Amino acid sequence: MLAREYARLQRRWLVIDLLFSFLLVVGFLVSGASRVFKMWLLGWGSTSPWLLVAVYMGLLLIADMLVSLPLAWWRGYVLPKRYELSTQTLKGWLLDELKTTALGLALGIPVAEVIYWLLRSHPETWWLWAAGLLVVLSIILGFLLPVVILPLFYTLVPLEDVALNVRIQELARRTGTRIAGVYTINLSSRTTAGNAMVMGVGATKRIALGDTLYADYTPEEIETILAHELGHQVHHDMELSVGVQSLLLVGSLYLARAFLNWGVSYFGFENSADVAAFPLLVLATALFSLVTMPLINFYSRWRERLADRFALEVTGNPEAFARAMLRLADQNLSESDPPDWVVWLLYDHPPIRERVSMARRVSPAEIGGAGGA
After folding, report:
1. Which ranges constitute the DSSP H helices of 268-317?
2. Integer Cα distance of 319 and 80 in angstroms
């Protein structure tokens, strides 16, 4: 089965990617290359701590992109092409990589500057201030995503199908969700996979319907998919995710603080604000993410199940929901029945078999017997 084969390859290359990244960071730290790199920058006149952080981070991000490019090319271009999930040319894929790197530089350097300023000025409590900063930044990015960031990669245009637009607007009204509009997004410029989403915050909140979905799915199937997405809005999953994210950031940065305090003496760094100790920050946050990933995914699957249930209740159309899930699994080459350990470790959504089974088990009385609008 192609979906199972593709999922197995994706997992294998994920492990290779993680091991490669881990060895790269550890090697950069243990070999002393990070300290040598910092001294080289100082020799070129980067004596201001602000300038030193900017140049160190900028060159490091670019170097990481170049070193990791072959692996990224295999995972992000070759495999999807082989399984007919990608519609991109190599030139288009490379352009996206350059855009992603530029975005990383534009966002990463200012964040690094603030964090290293906090390390210099508040060496004991920097991690708490940094966690607050990153939470606020994530909210701002959520607001800017559909109007500033996403247009760098995709084109969003108002949905021209009047009947479907009215149907979706009515669905949003019934769920009490205010949206700025319904749009189509040209996913087909990069992939054959189908998707739909609610994005943005406040005045920028909008529904984006992938053209790969819009072209082939029935209005009833589209409605159930979007009802699931609107369920996240009704259940305040974004607000809850900010709370969860805050706790995780505090835990991650507290571990980073411990790593820095230990590493300063072990590796002979000047202090915790020494930019050469940056690999310790990366290792601490990466290890924390790996350890907490199963718990985070468990939480996410719980919220996704609630959104599935909401979609059935608000549309009253479990058969359309089940059809939509099966079609998405086939279109996106999603493994319908993965091993339990894979679900526990890697899945932030319930597997398709579970979602379809739930929809087909539900009775009209349980969902109120409502019909689709």
Report:
1. 278-315
2. 30
| Alpha-carbon gap, residue 214 to 286, rounded angstroms | 37
User: For the chain, first and last CA: distance in Å?
Assistant: 37
At residue 199, φ and ψ (nearest 5 deg) are: -130, 160
The residue among 118, 136, 114 whose CA lies nearest residue 127 is 118
Q: Are 207 and 294 in contact (CB under 8 A)?
A: no
> Do residues 335 and 7 make contact, with C-beta atoms less than 8 angstroms apart?
yes
Contact between residue 179 and residue 196 where contact means Cβ atoms under 8 Å apart:
no
Read off the amino acid at residue 292: T
* Structural contact between residues 143 and 200, judged by C-beta atoms closer than 8 angstroms: yes
Q: What SS3 class is residue 330?
A: helix
Q: Measured between alpha carbons, how far is 188 from 181 in angstroms, rounded to an integer? A: 21
Cβ–Cβ < 8 Å for 205, 179: yes
Q: Which of 260, 248, 258, 372 is nearest to 319 (CA)?
A: 372
DSSP notation for 46-87: --SHHHHHHHHHHHHHHHHHHHHHHHHHIIIIIHHHHTT-B-
Of the candidates 261, 249, 287, the one whose C-alpha atom is nearest the C-alpha of residue 25 is 287
Tens-digit pLDDT string for the chain (373 aa): 799 999 999 999 999 999 999 999 999 999 999 999 999 999 887 779 999 999 999 999 999 999 999 999 999 999 999 999 999 999 999 999 999 999 999 999 999 999 999 999 999 999 999 999 999 999 999 889 998 999 999 999 999 999 999 999 999 999 999 999 999 999 999 999 999 999 988 888 999 999 999 888 999 999 999 999 999 999 999 999 999 999 999 999 999 999 999 999 899 999 999 999 999 999 999 999 999 999 999 999 999 999 999 999 999 999 999 999 999 999 999 999 999 999 999 999 999 999 999 999 987 767 764 443 3
Query: Which tokens sit at 107?
Result: 């966002």
Whole-model pTM over 0.85: yes
The whole-angstrom separation of Cα 95 and Cα 214 is: 26
